[in-house]
Design brief:
Strand content of chain A: 15-25%
Largest interface: A-B, 54 and 54 residues
CATH architecture of the largest domain in chain A: 3-Layer(aba) Sandwich
Structural class of chain A: alpha/beta
Largest sheet of chain A: 6 strands, parallel
Helix content of chain A: 40-55%
Number of helices of chain A: 13
CATH topology of the largest domain in chain A: Rossmann fold
CATH superfamily of the largest domain in chain A: Response regulator
Radius of gyration of chain A: 27 Å
CATH class of the largest domain in chain A: Alpha Beta
Oligomer: homodimer
Distance between the termini of chain A: 86 Å
Shape of chain A: elongated
Number of domains of chain A: 3
Strand order of the largest sheet of chain A: 2-1-3-4-5-11
Chain lengths: 351, 351
Amino acid sequence: MDPACAMAKSEMVRKPATLKDVAALANVSRATAARALNSYGYVGDETAQKVQAAAEKLGYRGNRLAQALRSGQLPIVGCILGDIQNPFFARIAHDIEVLARECGHNLVIGSSEEELGQEISLLASLQSLSIRGFIVAPTSADNNAHLKGLIAENVPLVLIDRVAEGIDCDSVVVDNEGGARKAVEYLIGMGHRRIGLLQDDMRIFTSRERMSGYRAALAAGGIAPDDRMVAVSQSTVEHAVDATIRLFSQKNPPTALFTVDSLMTQGALLAFRSMGISIPHDVSLIGFDDFNLATFTDPQITVVAQPVAEIGRAAARLLFDRLSGQGGQPQKFRFETKMIVRGSVSRRRDA
Amino acid sequence: MDPACAMAKSEMVRKPATLKDVAALANVSRATAARALNSYGYVGDETAQKVQAAAEKLGYRGNRLAQALRSGQLPIVGCILGDIQNPFFARIAHDIEVLARECGHNLVIGSSEEELGQEISLLASLQSLSIRGFIVAPTSADNNAHLKGLIAENVPLVLIDRVAEGIDCDSVVVDNEGGARKAVEYLIGMGHRRIGLLQDDMRIFTSRERMSGYRAALAAGGIAPDDRMVAVSQSTVEHAVDATIRLFSQKNPPTALFTVDSLMTQGALLAFRSMGISIPHDVSLIGFDDFNLATFTDPQITVVAQPVAEIGRAAARLLFDRLSGQGGQPQKFRFETKMIVRGSVSRRRDA
DNA sequence: AGACTGTGTGAGATCGATCTCACATATATT
DNA sequence: AATATATGTGAGATCGATCTCACACAGTCT
């Protein structure tokens, strides 16, 4: 009556072969089979061949779970980023995955969605897997007991894109403050004085640093900071559109805008278009983080570019160095940014 | 002398607490502790509380590896896609991760980079993890013994974006042929007769289907297929640039181009710009798969959009339905595409 | 011959959680 | 009082791979 039952005898779930099966087929003990397959200790030539043949025949493929339980380590690394849909993180995730594969590891990925709670529970869940190490872009710069916990348990951790207070471990970030400062100084040099900032949540490390670069440049240019010039948004195109519209709907809107990441830059572009504001005629724009789209618009968008191709690789390299037992002081990389001048900033004569 | 040794006594690797530790602290057996924590079988109230307290105190967090070894299943699903950097796949990966998390699972991600070998070894490596199920965008439509192997071992598998010959399992794809056909018919309706196709490797399922829609539309329009109108490229912006340049450097270039994915569409855009070819004046363009950039260009690009927000969720839903024991015939979803007419196609009077 | 070393092998413990079973008690039913 | 049933608990097996240890035999050296 039930076809699944009819199938039961012939075609039922073919379980993967275990070492015991191999040993039985080769007429040796499990211990000997293990020695033959992992080539350690003494094994007779003939025996070794028998075991190899048996393993071959059964399609034996070890059980990494059992191995990991014994050794205490699963050859997997975890990676917790803000959002894989952000091309910046997508690139990083990709590079990490490639390097992990080269090192015989797999990659578990999780999005914190910039929520601390999510980051914590994700981390806990991965930690209980005896995962070997983590690469994390922490959501919060301050609130990081969970990261301290990792370090206390001696699990290798590399922070990426952002560092966290009181966490002493390997890290790879860029010079956010310097990059932001360069950008804003450039705007000031072009005659702008009412310079807007479209920034992300201040919990986030990069947002803080970029904000601080913005402030430093203003100060150096003798411009008083003005809260009306600053809008806060989440890092999505949609939120950035709204924030930009708010910022530019006031009486005395900025003459230039600095956006702290590429999704926000895109949001600003959309907002300007919908408001009929033209770049660079009506307003100048410069964004942190380069992105494909930046060269497709007219005019092309001037940006502060990060060495995105190096960040993921550098972080993965650091992690696998630790995993291979290298000790020593934590290494802290800070990459330089590079301003790419295109056409979205114009000189301002009045002001 | 060695600071690491000095540290050894006080601050050495704090191993996570095991059930045994909890049981010892609560003065009960492991069995009872397990019952108390997982609430099954009979446990005295007082005992249960003691155990809870002990677990709390030690920060006990079960070892998923050990649990998985016993149960035979690790609460992780695997996902093998072409390339997370492609926004289409990034979106899918993100949606799958979210749903996996809701179902108490983690996500292991791998890029096949469209290489069959990579796909096979990645799959083998994940299979030996006793991973519970897979979502795969198979590189090759024909060569799929590894997928058959999965099914033989009764590991739930959902194919996404592409199906594979002779593999009978759940799948989620879009109507590639219909979408491509609509696009090309639209071009024909606008008076074009020399219609170029920029396509991906023919191993790939979507590429085949889109090609076939292209051919069908030509045939229906009474246009003889012409190999000189077809260029093959890998699915990256860079390769697409080259291919487009080749295609449009010939004597009688196409008057319209249909590109089979968004990265190729971007490549074509760059190529046209570098060649001084203007859209839609000199050439009309329509791409498969919508993308952010499409609305930022001038003119905006007409595309055949896929319901990208539904694909990942649908696939994950299918997978978790299987994991929760639902049997029955494989379900095969095929989503409709939708043409979004923007400004990159112009009517052609001559021809 | 007796004491070595060098090879080869298997029995059994281990990793941590879970589950079955047997064995206690306590309460309820005849 | 005798039997049944409900409740609570622990000893030990299990998942699969690996590693320690003990043991067996070969050949070598005094």
